Amino acid sequence: MGFMENDDPSLEITKKGISPAELDDAIRYWLDQNKETPSVVAISGPWGSGKTYWWKHFIESELTRSVYVSLFGISDVKELEQRVLAASFGVDVPLDEERIGKGFQSIGKLVKIGADVFKDVPGSGVLNAIEGYVGSVVRDAAYSRLNRAVVAIDDLERRSSTLALEQVLGFVSRLREVWNASVVLILNEVRLKTEDKTRLDEFREKVIDCDFQFAIAPSTAAEIGLKSNPWALRGATNFAEQVGLCNVRIFQRVDSILSRLVVNPATIPEPVLDRLANSVTGIAWAHFSRASHVPTAEQLLQFNSFAAGVKAADKNRNREPYEETLSKIRWIPDSMDNLVYEIVASGRVPSEEVNKQIQAYLLDHKRNDSSSRMQAAWDMYWSTLRDNANDFSEALSSAYVEHIPFSSLNELSGAVDILEKLEKHELARELVDKQIDWWKANDVSRERLGTWHIGFSAGSYLETKLAQLSPDTKSPLTPAEVLTLLSNKSGWGASEETVLLRTSKSEWIDTLENFDLAGIGTAISSVRSCYAHIKANKRPYVPWETSPLDEALVELGARSKIAQLRVDVLLRD
Known about the structure:
Layout (H helix, E strand, L loop, with lengths): L19 H11 L9 E5 L6 H12 L3 E5 L6 H11 L5 H25 L8 H19 L5 E5 L10 H13 L4 E6 L6 H14 L2 E4 L4 H8 L7 H11 L4 H14 L8 H19 L8 H5 L3 H9 L7 H8 L6 H12 L4 H32 L6 H15 L5 H13 L3 H17 L17 H8 L12 H8 L7 H9 L2 H9 L6 H17 L11 H11 L8 H6 L1
Parallel strand pairs: 1-4, 1-5, 2-3, 3-4
Helix pairs in contact: 3-4, 4-5, 6-7, 8-9, 8-10, 9-11, 10-11, 11-15, 11-16, 16-17, 17-19, 18-19, 19-20, 21-24, 23-25
């Protein structure tokens, strides 16, 4: 907010800007229609920040007599005056212009009739006099409606180049001084031409009583923009707060995209809805923003934290503003992001693909939810309920049954091992039977499950059941093949995970020394994430403290091999 010569503590000046709620209070003071002297107030803010939306909402609730005119495209001060006069009749500008025009035509016809009647009367100048008089009367009548009213003049920076800033400010002064109207100038001062900024500074003290810098929170902008899809507020706001997105128009575009996706929020869990809203907001922000610190949608989709870490470590390289932004946000591109970008760029909405991606989100959600339940069960065992075998067994069994579609052999082995030690033999066998049945129904081979060590207490029953699974007819992937696959995508599947867990340090060394460096950074980042995931989830019987890949990278770094990989950066990332 700019300067304010006032002792009212409720109108405290702040350089950070003023929120819509605070602006309501300040504007009530400056535009009090019972004040003896009218005011001129300027409200500046970025495009899309909701200035015009706020003003129209404010006048609907606060002002009974107001006029709104946009300067967009207006080429001279006469046209501006006509717009204001038309708007003073309280209806839409085009209708007012038409009505006033027809009124002048009717008056003109009457004048011509009068001229015909008095054609023999001396004094041919009477016609011009009548026309001028009638025009003045109509004009004065229109201006009289503005007495103690508020005239809002928007889009100062978007007026035609033929309309000088001095002409606008002169007209504003006449509105206040001659016609006793208060004026609100709404503009984006940053977007003014250099010469206009200079002129505005010269005339500011003479014309403008108070300046406000309009500030809107990301959550408020989202609330204004997402009128059709309020379910998206939480996910959209989460992303917007990371990047400082306060552009209402971008949120309106997000709203439009979400509506075209035809999502039924009643059938989708909140975390999945949040993830979808976050994706659409991120892509719309990147695609429709034009600031230098905002990446393009293509740059956002190609973002990789590992590659960014390597670039950041290069002290001789100056990072672009958009790279600084990317380094500060939590963004991991996925298939939904690519699909949303296709929708935004082409306008086409492939419904089948959208549904497929939402189903993938739903599956991830179920997997995460099941993992949380499994982790909670183990936390119970390792903490307060360690001595209460019945409670723990019941919690573990319930969580494991929910987790079956996502369970690995080591998780089953660990659960059975603990239950056997607690002498819950029937429950242990029940878990084995359920898991084996699911694996059989889904054609999961014994080889695909990996070579995890089976807990001692899990006994021969689990081994016997595992032998009933069909053998793997596919040749297992090699570490090099896994790296090739992961260099072209982010994330991993069960088959890649199985290969990684079988691969020793020496195998990793051989693979890395002979691997094409193109894309290897992305692949290694994904492999390390997989190992970290396994360790973070406290899977039983993990035979290493430091992953075989990290051990290989350390040794290669010590030998000064494949220096292009920047091993020190890899291990810090």
